[in-house]
Write a structure and sequence with these properties.
heterotrimer; A alpha+beta (370); B mainly alpha (431); C mainly alpha (306); A: 370 residues; alpha+beta; Rossmann fold; OB fold (Dihydrolipoamide Acetyltransferase, E2P); six-stranded mixed sheet; five-stranded mixed beta barrel; 9 helices; 34% strand; C: 306 residues; mainly alpha; 0% strand; globular; binds adenosine-5'-triphosphate; binds magnesium ion; MetI-like_sf (chain B); transmembrane helix (chain B); ABC transporter permease (chain B); membrane (chain B)
């Protein structure tokens, strides 16, 4: 397989009447990457995908596939294959006919089609099931048939619209690894849509976080998780604790922030915002639950947080402590279970510490809804 | 409890009356096809005969009408299914603001009286024809064309309703998936949408054909040189009816029952097979040893179908050897005697009347006039003749030669007011 | 090109889109709208021989409508009593037929919709079979029954109900029976469709609360079935007012149906504009009547044909 065909969105705008579904998106997707769009429901993910596959004409800007402008090229002429949110398997065709539909279009003989169908069925681990109807398959099997059907068209770019959302948790986790394996095997570009950050993080080479038609941040999983550039990205991807406040002093890559509840704290300014923040700016600081450790009682300083414990729970691998947090949100702390003994702190004040590199400061902004 | 069973009883009585109203006329009409009098009647039963069937198949106009109906039906099916499908597809994607107006327009032909549709079609295409400067024999004033166009106007609405019902369950993503996999729009339509719509298209086509086949109101204005079966039947029914029409009706009834039973039987069979499949163990399925239920087992409709088929074969068989000549001759002889009796009686009466007339002088003309007048109405179901179409009498006359039996009395009766109520119907049609 | 057209062609492809648009336009404009307009236009013109059409005499006139109201010019009567009487009689009779049909069909539709079992399918088949048979033949069948020497008269005379055969045709009984007969299915189906979707639990709940059957129907079933009932009534009314075959075959000699007048104008008098005017009057009156009744019962056009 080749290195794959890249996809670029340049200043892409999509409007439905007065409603702006996608606002000035700029994305470069490298050939052969597994790229995810991550965002809450209704933020315009499907819309972007439909623009890439050719069902929607951009209102403004360009879609390039392999460097070629796709303007005016219909979905049937683009080197993409889309796996629909609801799969859209042809209900009246047998599985093998479904899979090789793209060959039927090109006029391939039944023998060729059968042969190719068998290969693909082997690949998706459904050997010998070609003569069933889609309605006679389980959800996960249908899922795989949809993938095989798309792959049979030999697209340069495979577009997947929340393909796993209809499956139960176990199967979803299994399919994640399977999808990733398939992608690595065929080596083509995958553009994947999801509102499940776990899915995005486990599978993707790169992730774009979207909010209401706007792309907030693009980066690999680690960057998105550890170095979010907006309050939305920080709060949407994974669990996070927010501390609202004002920048008091900038100290190179770090800053001292005057928080509303927990006094002055020091944290790192996120990479994307380096040099852009001034003293006095409203800001938010985020610290992950697992980035805290218990500190000696009454310890004071710019990397200690003290708060009252509301509730505690034991989750097996971690021990969760819920404390009074900022703006009505609870502050969550997860201590890994390493066999140590936990005392019950409910109702008491306890003190936590964190390392500065694990706390990031971003400009104040809208948080993701719970 | 008592109350409940009373309700059940009245329900069944109601159902019985209802279905008697619905099916009784068909049964009686079918029966008249086998009775020998030349006016379709069930009572009194004279002779079993199959003659009306051969009369039917000798009737050039009926046969020609059937052929025209098939031509019109085929054209209407193609045009109205196509327009209905396009209309239904358009309904699913039309601009929301236009939707209600559009729906009103395409549903309206169902409510517009057929007569109006026929007239407007005729008037409109006549005008187009004139505007294009074409002659009276042009394509646009051709009866076949006009009838197909006129019928399709409203039959397409029926088709649209049938198709839209199925289209609502269609996932537009299927078409998009096909396009995405490289199909052209035409291929996506043919390979994905059309197979999905096939059952509905089949229903729509059957519906369209039946509606076209039986249409009268629209066709009667547009048929031109192509009288359909319905038009021919209407002509016949209006100007003198014979049991040959009953014979045709009987054939259509039998065909209909056949089709209905066949449909029912195959539905039932599918059910049974599906049930058997469901009950079968995996082993049975894999080894292919699954015994599917026979065609006839626990399938009442299938049994009925076979019975009807056997009965038909038996009737056709009987018909080819059976000859009612003797019976008809007997009846005829009897009738002749009756007629003679009556003529004698009549003569006597006339004699009597002349005597009276001679006595009373001028009263006579006044007496005969109303008698003749009422004849026009009562004889031969004159009721159907519209006042303008007094041709009834003259049309009926040529038939006298073909059907000589039982009409001797005709002329005699005309002058006899008493005879009108008794044999009037029969003699009228015989004339 | 307007944006929605562009969108339309993008969605359906140029070829398929044009085909679809062409068919829909041909149907709506070419077969539905223009012919009606053309008939309307035609009804305002004098009856001229073909060479004079488009000539100086071809001017708009109200003659044809005046004729319906005042009769021929210089006629003996002030009003066209004959035609007007036929017109109103047709409307009244069509309303009667509709009401009769509703009363006859509602129980059947309710029964079919609320009962389960295989015999229901048989009933449905029995309902449909008569409608696969020609309209003319259905009327013909009734004529055999209602004729003077028909089965019914023979039976009634035989039973001693009448001494002499009763003239069902002259008394229009045959006609009403025939019209009712012709449209049973059109009344049953819409009502059946609606009632079938009525949750049985609603009825049971009402019964639980002690409602009587008439009460249940009045308060639960009929309000729910209103779209179906109005749809059925509209169709039956329009079709029986516009019926031609049944009145021609079953009508009495002295009582015409309005469509027969139209037919005569076209075929016997060859006065097309006059016929068109009558057709327009029939169409407009029926539509207004239906709309008025729909207004009265608060039903939407969108319910028709469901
Ligand atoms: N054809 C359309 N006309 C008008 N608005 C539309 C259309 N398609 C989408 N939208 C709007 O655009 C926005 C984005 O829709 P989109 O389908 O892209 O969401 P999504 O991110 O895929 O959501 P989900 O995760 O629920 O699938 C939504 O607010 C939606 O209402
Ligand atoms: Mg979506």
């Amino acid at each position: 397989m080749s290195a794959g065909v890249g996809v670029d969105l340049e200043n892409l705008w999509i409007r439905f009447g007065d409603f702006v579904a996608v606002r000035d998106a700029n994305v470069n997707i490298n050939g052969g990457d597994f790229f995810s769009f991550l965002g809450p429901s209704g933020c315009g993910k499907t819309t972007i995908l439909r623009a890439v596959s050719g069902f929607l004409e951009p209102s403004d800007g360009r879609v390039l596939i392999g460097g070629n402008d796709m303007k005016g090229i219909g979905p049937n002429k683009r080197p993409t294959a889309l796996i629909f949110q609801n799969l859209a398997l042809f209900p009246l065709m047998k599985v093998w006919e479904n899979i090789t539909f793209s060959m039927e279009i090109k006029g391939a003989s039944v023998r060729e089609r059968r042969k190719r169908a068998d290969e693909l069925l082997d690949m998706i681990a459904l050997p010998g099931q070609g003569d069933k109807l889609p309605s006679e398959l389980s959800g996960g099997q249908r899922q795989r048939v949809a993938i095989a059907r798309a792959l049979c068209a030999e697209p340069d770019v495979l577009l997947l619209d929340e393909p796993l959302s209809a499956l139960d948790l176990k199967l979803r986790q299994h399919m994640r690894t399977e999808l990733r394996e398939i992608q690595q095997r065929v080596g083509i570009t995958f553009i994947y849509i999801t509102h499940d950050q776990g899915e995005a993080l486990t599978m993707s080479d790169s992730i774009a976080v979207m909010k209401a038609g706007v792309i907030d941040q693009i980066g690999n999983g680690k960057t998105i998780y550890n170095d979010p550039s907006t309050a939305f990205a920080a709060s949407f991807v994974g669990e996070n604790n927010v501390f609202r406040g004002k920048i008091k002093r900038i100290m190179g890559e770090e800053a001292l922030i005057q928080t509303n509840r927990s006094g002055e704290l020091v944290a790192r300014i996120s990479t994307a915002n380096q040099g852009k923040m001034k003293e006095g700016d409203a800001a938010m600081m985020f610290i992950r639950p697992e980035a805290f450790a218990l500190a000696p009682k009454g310890a004071k300083g710019t990397h200690f947080v003290t708060a009252k414990v509301n509730n505690e729970e034991f989750e097996g691998n971690v021990f969760n402590i819920f404390m009074e947090g900022d703006g009505g949100k609870e502050l969550k702390v997860s201590i890994p279970n390493l066999g140590q003994s936990f005392e019950d702190h409910t109702g008491q004040n306890i003190t936590l510490e964190y390392e500065t590199k694990n706390a990031v400061i971003v400009p104040a902004g809208e948080l993701a809804a719970e | 409890m008592k109350n409940f069973s009373f309700m059940r009883l009245s329900l069944w009585v109601y159902l019985a009356i209802f279905f008697a109203y619905l099916l009784g006329p068909l049964v009686i009409m079918s029966a008249t096809a086998f009775n020998s009098p030349s006016f379709p009647r069930m009572t009194p039963w004279e002779c079993l005969t199959f003659e009306w069937f051969s009369a039917l198949f000798r009737d050039e106009r009926i046969l020609n009408g059937i052929w025209n109906s098939i031509l019109v039906g085929a054209g209407t099916v193609v045009l109205s299914v196509a327009m209905g499908l396009a209309g239904a597809l358009m309904l699913t994607q039309i601009w929301p603001k236009l939707r209600a107006t559009y729906y009103t327009i395409i549903i309206a032909p169902i409510l517009i009286p057929g007569v109006v549709l026929g007239i407007s079609t005729l008037v409109f295409w006549d005008r187009i024809n004139r505007m294009l400067g074409l002659g009276a024999d042009s394509f646009l004033s051709n009866g076949l064309f006009l009838t197909i166009i006129g019928q399709s106007t409203f039959i397409a609405s029926y088709c649209m309703l049938v198709l839209v019902a199925r289209l609502q369950r269609y996932d537009i993503a299927l078409t998009e998936a096909a396009l995405d996999l490289g199909a052209t729009h035409a291929q996506a339509f043919r390979k994905v949408l059309l197979p999905f719509m096939r059952p509905a298209i089949a229903s729509a086509a059957v519906l369209a054909f039946l509606a076209s086949f039986e249409n009268y109101n629209t066709t009667t204005f547009t048929f031109g040189e192509y009288p359909t079966l319905t038009i021919e039947l209407a002509q016949k029914v209006r100007y003198g009816i014979t049991p040959a029409i009953s014979a045709l009706a009987f054939i259509i009834v039998v065909l209909t029952v056949f089709a209905a039973l066949f449909n029912e039987a195959s539905i039932r069979r599918k059910q049974l097979v599906a049930e058997a499949r469901k009950k079968a163990t995996v082993e049975e399925l894999e080894s292919g040893k699954l015994r599917l239920p026979g065609f006839l087992s626990s399938n009442a409709a299938a049994v009925a179908l076979v019975v009807v088929a056997c009965a038909t074969v038996a009737v056709v068989g009987t018909a080819s050897v059976y000859s009612p000549q003797q019976c008809i001759a007997n009846v005829q002889e009897q009738k002749r005697l009756e007629t003679e009796e009556r003529i004698k009686e009549l003569r006597r009466q006339r004699e009597l009347r002349r005597q009276q007339q001679e006595e009373q002088g001028e009263a006579a003309p006044a007496q005969t006039a109303p008698a003749t007048g009422s004849t026009g109405n009562n004889s031969g179901f004159g009721g159907v003749f519209a006042p303008g179409s007094l041709s009834g009498g003259s049309e009926a006359e040529p038939e006298t030669e073909q059907e000589p039996q039982g009409n001797n009395s005709g002329f005699g009766n005309v002058f006899d007011p008493n005879a009108l109520s008794g044999d009037g119907g029969e003699s009228g049609s015989g004339n | 090109m307007p944006s929605f057209l562009k969108e339309f062609f993008k969605r359906n492809g140029t070829g398929m889109g044009s085909l679809m648009l062409g068919l829909v336009l041909f149907w709506t404009v070419g077969l539905i709208i223009l012919p009606q307009l053309s008939m309307l236009d035609f009804s305002f013109r004098p009856n001229l021989p073909p060479p004079e059409i488009g000539g100086p005499k071809d001017v708009y006139t109200l003659e044809n409508y005046k004729y319906l109201i005042y009769g021929p010019e210089g006629g003996s009567q002030d009003y066209n009593a004959v035609d007007l009487k036929v017109f109103f009689r047709t409307l009244v009779a069509a309303v009667c037929v509709t009401v009769f049909n509703l009363i006859l069909c509602y129980p059947i539709a309710y029964y079919l919709a609320q009962t389960k079992g295989n015999h229901i399918r048989i009933f449905a088949l029995m309902l449909i079979i008569p409608y696969w048979i020609n309209e003319i033949l259905r009327a013909f069948a009734l004529r055999i029954i209602f004729g003077e020497t028909g089965v019914l008269n023979n039976m009634l005379v035989g039973l001693g109900v009448f001494d002499t055969p009763f003239d069902f045709i002259r008394n229009d009984i045959a006609l009403y029976a025939g019209l009712g007969y012709a449209y049973i299915l059109l009344m049953i189906f819409p009502i059946y469709n609606v009632i079938e979707s009525l949750d049985r639990n609603q009825i049971e709940a009402a019964r639980d609360m002690g409602a009587s059957w008439p009460m249940i129907h009045r308060r639960v079933v009929i309000p729910y079935a209103k779209p179906g009932i109005s749809s059925g009534c509209t169709m039956v009314f329009m079709l029986s007012a516009g019926a031609l075959a049944a009145p021609q075959i079953l009508g009495g000699p002295s009582s015409l149906w309005f469509t027969q007048l139209i037919y005569q104008q076209f075929n016997d008098n060859s006065d097309w504009p006059q016929g068109a005017a009558y057709a327009v009057v029939l169409l407009v009156t029926c539509i207004l009547l239906v709309l008025a009744v729909m207004r009265l019962f608060k039903v939407n056009m969108g319910d028709i044909g469901k």
